[in-house]
């Protein structure tokens, strides 16, 4: 269940990231669907805390540099992404494709870190980006780390399953079979269900009992043409995860 005030703060921040210009509070309220009085109070609180400022009497509001500095300080000390960044970089270099670390956020997949391919045509995403759990290699790998009861409850919360990118239905029995097949071979695959013409490969695992996955994403034709070597690189990267982290799972 969302906490309304917290959700509204993030809605305002994400709106500024999208618009990238000052906005008056009535425009912010309209675009975030926050009642005018509540929006005004929220913006004044964010000003009082140093996260927004008013560049002119009628120019509206805009975020201060405080948000950047706080986020940078937090992210620079994240022990998990710091541990995985060298592995993601090596995985990107070994495959030529985008590499990522993913986890679950409710019933969706969220990227915790992304190292993009250097190729001109590539799969592009960013930390904090979401995907459907049922239509991605990362989602299948994360589902595979869950106990059967937990997996069933998560999939129950997703129904009805949204269709694939091409509009074709995704059958739950087929999905569950693909999760089991991936567990048996040690990695999972997607072929355009979430993003058209993009394929993914993923290896799931647990840390502190929570599901994570190493992911490779790239243009479908290119990645599947080199799938054997990409899977080897993926499993090699998994083998290099510090044993102390996996033992915590």
TrEMBL record:
<dbReference type="GO" id="GO:0003700">
    <property type="term" value="F:DNA-binding transcription factor activity"/>
</dbReference>
<dbReference type="Pfam" id="PF09339">
    <property type="entry name" value="HTH_IclR"/>
</dbReference>
<feature type="domain" description="IclR-ED">
    <location>
        <begin position="66"/>
        <end position="249"/>
    </location>
</feature>
<keyword id="KW-0804">Transcription</keyword>
<keyword id="KW-0238">DNA-binding</keyword>
<dbReference type="Pfam" id="PF01614">
    <property type="entry name" value="IclR_C"/>
</dbReference>
<dbReference type="InterPro" id="IPR036388">
    <property type="entry name" value="WH-like_DNA-bd_sf"/>
</dbReference>
<dbReference type="GO" id="GO:0045892">
    <property type="term" value="P:negative regulation of DNA-templated transcription"/>
</dbReference>
<feature type="domain" description="HTH iclR-type">
    <location>
        <begin position="3"/>
        <end position="65"/>
    </location>
</feature>
<dbReference type="InterPro" id="IPR005471">
    <property type="entry name" value="Tscrpt_reg_IclR_N"/>
</dbReference>
<dbReference type="InterPro" id="IPR014757">
    <property type="entry name" value="Tscrpt_reg_IclR_C"/>
</dbReference>
<dbReference type="InterPro" id="IPR036390">
    <property type="entry name" value="WH_DNA-bd_sf"/>
</dbReference>
<dbReference type="GO" id="GO:0003677">
    <property type="term" value="F:DNA binding"/>
</dbReference>
<dbReference type="InterPro" id="IPR029016">
    <property type="entry name" value="GAF-like_dom_sf"/>
</dbReference>
<keyword id="KW-0805">Transcription regulation</keyword>
<dbReference type="InterPro" id="IPR050707">
    <property type="entry name" value="HTH_MetabolicPath_Reg"/>
</dbReference>
<protein>
    <submittedName>
        <fullName>Transcriptional repressor IclR</fullName>
    </submittedName>
</protein>
């Amino acid at each position: 269940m969302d906490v309304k005030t917290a959700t509204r703060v993030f809605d305002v921040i994400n709106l500024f990231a999208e618009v990238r210009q000052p906005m008056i509070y009535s425009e912010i309220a309209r675009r975030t669907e926050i009642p005018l009085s509540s929006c005004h109070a929220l913006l004044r609180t964010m000003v009082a805390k140093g996260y927004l400022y008013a560049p002119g009497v009628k120019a509206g509001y805009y975020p201060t540099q405080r948000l950047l500095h706080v986020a940078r300080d937090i992210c620079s000390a994240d022990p998990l992404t710091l541990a995985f960044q060298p592995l993601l970089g090596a995985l990107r270099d070994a495959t030529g494709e985008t590499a990522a670390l993913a986890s679950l956020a409710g019933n969706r997949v969220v990227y915790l870190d992304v190292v993009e391919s250097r190729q001109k045509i590539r799969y592009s995403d960013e930390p904090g980006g979401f995907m459907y759990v049922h239509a991605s290699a990362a989602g299948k790998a994360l589902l595979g780390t869950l106990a059967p009861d937990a997996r069933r409850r998560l999939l129950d919360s997703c129904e009805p399953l949204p269709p694939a990118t091409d509009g074709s239905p995704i059958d739950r029995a087929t999905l569950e079979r693909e999760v089991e097949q991936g567990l048996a071979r040690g990695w999972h695959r997607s072929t355009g269900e979430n993003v058209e013409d993009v394929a993914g490969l993923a290896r799931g695992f647990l840390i502190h009992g929570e599901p994570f996955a190493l992911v490779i994403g790239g243009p479908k034709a290119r990645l599947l043409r080199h799938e054997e070597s990409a899977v080897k690189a993926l499993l090699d990267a998994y083998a290099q995860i510090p044993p102390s982290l996996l033992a915590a799972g």
